[in-house]
Request: fold
Amino acid sequence: MELEIRNISVSLSNKEILKSINLTVENGEFISLLGASGCGKSTLLKTIAGIIKQREGSILLGGKVLDRLPPHKRRTVIVFQDFRLFPHMTLAENISFPLKMMGVNKSECRKRAIELLKKVKLEGYEDRFVDEISGGQKQRVALARALAADPVVLLLDEPFSSLDVNLRKDMRELVLDLQKEYKITTILVTHDQEEALAMSDRIAFMYNGEILQYDKPENIFNNPVNTIVADYFSEGTYISGEIRDRRFISDFFNISANKDNGRYKCLIRPAALKVSKANDSDFEVVAKVYQGDNYLLKINKKDSNLKLESILNEPLDIEEGDKVTIELDKDKLIFIPE
Amino acid sequence: MKDLSSNRLLKIFLYLALFAILAPMVIIIFWAFANQWPWPNLLPTSYSLRGVKEIFAPYGKVFPILTSSITLSLTVALLSAIIAIMTARAIVFYDFWGKGILDFISMAPNLVPSTVFAMGIHVVFIKMSLANTPLGVIIVHLIYTLPYTINIMRNLTESIGKDMEQQAYVLGASPWKSFLYISFPLLLPGIIASITMAYILSFSQYFVTLLIGGGKVMTFSMIMVPFIAKGDRTLGSAYALVFVISTLLVFTIINTIMKRFQKRKEKYNWN
Reply:
């Protein structure tokens, strides 16, 4: 169902955590709330679920106002970072807990629990207890239990952050598969920009209790509204300048740019910079960092404090101390209005 | 090697503790059947069934008083545990005006000497016509047991936290069901400890019961203590034996009933 958040403000112990948040999530859409810790993303999730009360504003689900509905009647299910499986119950009992609350009879509960365990690839684990399974398995059970509650909106609160990197990828795929299969409107809270970019239909970037930008992953990555958003995805070097008649003019370079006139900051991310070896140049490689898939080159310009970074895909014979010429990839430059 | 030696130390300690509990028990058993046991004899010089006869005497009121005393203490124990669960939740989960004062007051009966405290309460209870009634005794026992039970429940409530209940809410459980199905089973070890603690405190209370009950509310301690105070070791020991056996029986029953709620956890308790 479509979820609409209207002007939500939340204060906790006299501190304003959320400031007039507006957000719309389409039916069946997968969105991410991205931001550093403390930006209010988890608070927003709990407010949607009704665990935290808003000071102002409304939450609408399929056009109906949820504000007066207690958490257990909202059908907005949270999967928490620490999974919160009930330690005194078997996995089957954990998964059928929401069914039991709906009044489903015992044998039907068990049948559904076994089905759901199969869906999360934990066949035959129904009579185990929580302390007998691994972190990744707990995550799967938590997911199955959330699905058993037949959620209208599924809320995932940093569900992958406590898992190993390898496991994380599998779990992301599983979550996406299940989300598509059940067509559940889903909100993922994460601080991992890669995760947000890879999984979501749209990303809402949060900062200091506000949503700075809400857009498709490609748009938010390529057209960040300000330097805070831009830096969160990939850092780079900012060059101040001005655009006049479709041309960006700065102290260091002039380049064509398809933007309106005005003062801009040009962000040069490592991927936008190509280098080649040269004997006579102002640019010098000061460091070469191996990153597994590629090398990161740190480049300084002589007689200025301009510092640039570039990605080197091939282990070319560029070493520390070498002089290089640089070339900018016009399409990968990002112009942010000042 | 270090493991083994620390293990041995632990064993020695356990045996010492066991001895400290069992040795007085053995002496009580001997005394209950002893007629004369002068120093320095290792065993009584003559035996008698005076103690047994007194307890089982047809004219005696030992068993009716024992039954009513157990009922009274069980009532106190259950009420104390229930109040403690609620107080602990209030103190741990909610912020309210006077929270610090409540926290302190719940400890107060332990800070003031019990005789002083009981005298004060006695005056108030007389005015409220609660003195000399079972209800008055139950209330005064509650005041004595609550500091212990509240502390037990508070620590456990703190360590369990609200997270699990929150998870239950969003999965569709009402607050009451969340407590019943999630928090209650997790609190059960503490509830058993609270009930046991409150029971033994209430069951062994003498002075306060005497004062508030005014001799009209009879508990087992009230018929036992005079014999001990008088120095009649045979009868004192016989009563003490009944005290210990009845208490152990009650504990076994409480444990069995409570453990039924968490039967399955026991089966897998190997971590």
About this structure: Residues 51-267 of chain B form a domain with the MetI-like fold fold (CATH 1.10.3720.10). The CA atoms of residues 88 and 153 of chain B lie 6 Å apart. Chain B touches chain A through 23 residues (CB under 8 Å). Chain B has two domains: 1-48, 51-267.
